[in-house]
Design goal:
By secondary structure, chain A is mainly α. Chain A is about 60% helix and about 0% strand. In chain A, β2 and β3 form a beta hairpin. Chain B is mainly α. Classes of the chains: A mainly alpha, B mainly alpha.
Chain lengths: ~775, ~220
Amino acid sequence: MSARLESFSYDDAIVRKFVFVTFFWGAVAMLVGLLAAIELADPAFNFGIPWLTFGRIRPLHTNAAIFAFAGNAIFAAVYYSTQRLLKTPMFSKLLSNIHFWGWQAIIVGAAVTLPLGFTQGKEYAELEWPLDLAVVVIWVVFAVNFFGTIAKRRERHLYVALWFYIATIITVALLYIFNNLALPSGWLKSYSLYAGVQDAFMQWWYGHNAVAFVLTTPFLGLMYYFLPKAAERPIYSYKLSILHFWSLIFIYIWAGPHHLHYTALPAWASTLGMLFSLMLWMPSWGGMLNGLLTLRGAWDRVAADPVLKLFVVSVTFYGMSTFEGPTLAIKSVNILSHYTDWTIAHVHAGTLGWVGFGTFAMIYWLVPRIYQTELWSKKLAEIHFWIGTLGILLYLVAIYAAGLTQGLMWLAFDKAGYLKYGDFVETTVRLIPMYWVRFIGGGLYLTGTLLIGLNMLMTWLRRPRPYAVQVHQAPALEKLQPEPIPMPSPLTEEGLPVSEAAVKLEYFASARWHRLWEARPVKLTVWVTIAVAFGSLFEAIPTFLIKSNVPTIASVKPYTPLELAGRDIYVAEGCYNCHSQMVRPIRAETERYGEYSKPGEFVYDHPFQWGSRRIGPDLQRIGGKYPDLWHLRHMADPRSITPGSIMPVFPWLLSDDLDFDAIASAVRAQKRLGVPYTDEEIASAVELARAQAERIGRKLDTESGMEGLEHTKIIALIAYLQRMGTDIKKPMEAPPAPVAKPPVQEAQRPATMPASESNVARAAGGGSRGAS
Amino acid sequence: MHDDTTRPKNGPSRDELLDHDYDGIQEYDNPLPRWWVMIFWASIVFAPIYILFYHFGPGLSEHQQYERSVQAFYERQAKALAALGEVTDETLLTVKANPAMLSRGGQIFRAKCSPCHGMFGEGNIGPNLTDDYWIHGAKPTDIYHTIFEGVPDKGMLTWKNQLPPARIMAVAAYVLTLHGTSPPNPKAPQGTLVEPAETPVAPGAETPRGETSPPRTGA
């Protein structure tokens, strides 16, 4: 190459910034997680403070872990490795800094708004619309900076880590924008554009692929750069990189509906979610193989090097989680696992193990390089490794046990076919010891994180001042010349001619053509977009367009203005973090909760509130189940009604005034989303709400001996709870129940023989045991 | 350490380096592990088979499976009810006379009924069960049926699918023993007055009551 050598140096200041906030927000996210964990072990630990209540801090924990801890770790990895893989500093230092400060500002915004109850009510998509807009703007800044860097690169071919970064940037943008489309009704309040089944579909397309494209693909990119650097070994198989990259991004995007097995989502979508999850197993393991097999020949160093040790555990957890994921996606396994702590264990194996340890490995490798001095204490890093591993193990053992315990108890029938644990709380109290072990495990993991912070601090204190700036040299890229890729020989080894099709097939299978794509970032990016858009559209279009997916139920009507206000409180308090609103067609659930949920029941639910975890019981059929007074007493002090309950107390709902004036804009926004409120209803929304509140409140005032309840939030919440899931029971318009219940009464009538004491005692079970 | 010792079992690792070099990272031209390719293909081939079987073939849909399980349960329950015989005032009074059954009924009452009716039947969210006022009838069978079917409009739960009929009988019998007791903090009467005389008296009025019932102080 005759091109003139150009001199340049890398911007490591931005990497130092991102590495620091990775640690900082990681510690915060884990601390909040620890608080959430102890509140489940004992609900007194929210200290009766609204903004410390589980329903509000759990979203803070998940968002902080995903977008602040993992997010900043990704940016640190991208900013360090991209410059070096492309032999150029970033496209724009200004954009790098806007990206950094913008992202931190968003995190602070989230940390303030989420505990205050400003939420969209969709998991990991809780941030309200102004913050969403900020996320999109900053993401675009990041994308421009990244693709700008590719444009001015001095390395012809893009390495596999960069493919994964490209897939991340493109897909996260698609997911984030389309799932968060919402209509604002105020500065910090909006309603999802989608309702019910469609909203659920979009949410889990997003939710599952947030795991894919925030917690998986960028970390594979991270692994592909930092693991071979640390191991000083070549990547095991280039061909495997190609195949597992494309199959992973193409297949991952289909798998979202496995979060909605046995729900009101149409069965075909659920089936696709399951089958593509199974297909995803090997593409995921491709990454694990390339990681672990790259360490061949370096295993002797693993024992001595905390970086490699952390990577080995990280990649192993990746392999375990990506085997477990397809397992959980199998419908019959999902009956047991869904809504239980098993899912929580699964996601923590992924985040604490794969993401967390991968991030720590990167940081330990980076720290001596970005602070330009030796790591302060390798021994401390070793301790971090062991304390973190022990923390993960304690966490996982406890929470897997909790998940299995609760799942099995929910499904258990006695010999006569009745629920063995008919009271939900029986299953809750069984988990409390495991919740304490989880708390200890999480505490150990956080301790480890604080140790890496200490190590970073001490290393940073010993940094050279100023930092040395290393100058690199490389020739600029010349105009792209077509590279000849040799076609396979048209003759077999024995010299016999091969058909043209076979030659083409072999050319395709050899993946040699991929080398050309690696030199053409635009082409690569376009194909990445096609790969992720294909599965998305294949599932989304029928979900939105085919009417039979959501059969209309005539008796299902929009919420009254007061109920709508109550629903907003339900969302703001984060009730969906502990309660589902989705009874599956499984007898153990219909016996416990009532008729299973129908797609048509949710057509006015912007956003849907099906939930994903039952820390408390399902609420879909709570409407009318208990008197208003029950709810009043229960919200004020759940344990006065259900001893052993771990639900937080909500005394402020009984004292805070309901903002009746805000109801008008809420109803107007819902109308714009297609909820058929009449003009009179909109015009008189506030009066309607006041009238209904008066009716419920007056009665409750007398029954409870309290005063002025009709002005408080609790009345709206009770109105909503009492409405929930009742529309299909309305006699006139309700369709015939799909399951014809045999006439139990008649079965008992024809028997004329009087029940004898002995057969009653026998049937009552255990009755005779009490005799003495 | 030479690579041969850690070579994967399937698929030869030739470990030929490609002429790729990214910031010092090199790549081998190793083939895909054979088992990896086989499982990947198997997972792909499985998909159409599953779809054909469950969506176009004999596989039961989740709703069909559900209906079968419900059907099976109702058949079982009907049989159990038939075996139990007709529930009459007399049978319930017999149950009331059985200490073991009453003790069982008391256990269930305290676990499942007390949140609304109070630990001693004094009433709380639900009505007082110790006074002479009844909303849905005072006869033993009335009480049994109120528990069995519930009164969904008023917040009384339906228990027929939660508790086997014999246990509902035990609870009903236990509720009969609460009548006339004087628990602390009684809720004001609701419903219509049923003269105590109308309440059938158990054969042998000295039946034992649930062990936590406060002593009866007046009749």
